[in-house]
Amino acid sequence: MDTTSVRFDAAVPALAYALVPWSPLIPVAFARRPTNPVQLVAAVAAITGLAAHASGRLSFVVVAAIVVALLLALRSLDDIERSPAALVAMVVAVGFLVVRDIEARPARVLEAIGRADTNGPPFTAVAAKMVRIATAATTSLTAAILLVPRAWLPVRRSVAIFAVGSLAWLALHVHVYPALRGRLSPTAARETWERVRAQGEALGTLGVDPHAITEGPTVPLAQATAAGRWLAEASSARRYVAVASTELAQLNGAVRAERHTNVPILAGGDGTVMLAASALASGEHSESPLDTFVRNELPGGLRPIDAVADDRLELVGWDLRDARDRPLEAAATGKRMHVRLVLRVRTPQPTNAYCTFLHIDHAPTRFSAEHREHPYPMSLWQVGDVIVDDFEVTLPPQFLTGHYALWWGIGELPCQDDRRLPVTSGPNDGHGRVRGGTLEVR
Questions:
Q1: Average pLDDT for residues 299-321, to the nearest whole number?
Q2: Bridge partners of 341?
Q3: Type and span of the H or E element at 251
Q4: CA–CA gap between residue 170 and residue 67 (Å, rounded)
Q5: Which of 66, 125, 160, 306 is most buried when burial is the number of CB atoms within 10 A of its CB?
Q6: Of all helices (H) and strands (E), which one includes residue 379?
Q7: CA dihedral in degrees (28, 30, 35, 38; nearest 10)?
Q8: Whether the Cβ atoms of residue 420 and residue 310 lie closer than 8 Å to each other
Q9: What predicted TM-score, i.e. pTM, was given to this entire model?
């Protein structure tokens, strides 16, 4: 394999995200021959720096040189009546590629703030969406400014393009990136630990650099199972664990195995570093994102089903909620809703290599959704756990006003055929699908 080519390819996304939302304008910087020594020096520095940093780690000097070359090139556009169609096409092509790339891999947004994580946490999807919007807006408006005749513009073409890019840049760097950095930072966990700890209360770390939380002594915990036991053994004095979000499910499973309750999270519930505690003090509440998915008690207001899958899982009922978690009596097309199926575990570790699915029947095409992975993995489910299998549903327009059959089941991974766990009791179709009732569409 040609490793030089691989290293150069790695620099492309690094450059694209270092310059977002200016990335689509890179072709403008090098589209025309330099007309003065300053422009020539900037172009040569940018090209040389890019070649020198082909490993993908671009320095500030490289990015700055490209920005200078771009600004100087923008000024030269004021001298022409209409920009070449090829230049406009290149701007649109680069913008399209950046938008599609981040849509396919939302974790790419981390490269814009100097991180190179290959698997970003779920909340990066929100930041990625904002980056896509900013890049698409910059691309489309720049293309329009380049295409229209110079006489039609109230200001110089370079000023208009610079204003568009600057507004998008400010939106990202003032609102989106600071919020993203905050959720990636252990600040919330560190500050909460410093505020709530009492004399002699110990802090453990699981998947987290202890120096990011405190300069004092900590208890290193290599495995979630050991961390769960360590928390469960706490008596009068509380214990705390600074835990990486990637370890939360396993830690929660270990605590539930000891106490049959979720591990309380005091801070960082929406970030990458959380502060877990052995117990909640008066006035405290848990921020654990898993409280939505695994619990001890059944939620109220369920539409009953009373079915059992393979003597392992009892399907108790379901409900319908809107995007703000408010109960709904009926569904509507084109609106984001949630169908929540509530299960109760009857056997230890009931399932593993399975997915759950939801079907809403409609002819000729039904609505289908599936969960190949769950926020709280099936391998951690324990006897007595109440599991909320939450499906996001947006019905297409062909679902006219009426009543539609709702089905749920468990399929064998990779869930590409009709291999399913049998339904051992309750309403079903004889093919591994539980009849949940009817969904009304108004």
A1: 94
A2: 318, 389
A3: helix 248-259
A4: 16
A5: 66
A6: none
A7: 100
A8: no
A9: 0.77
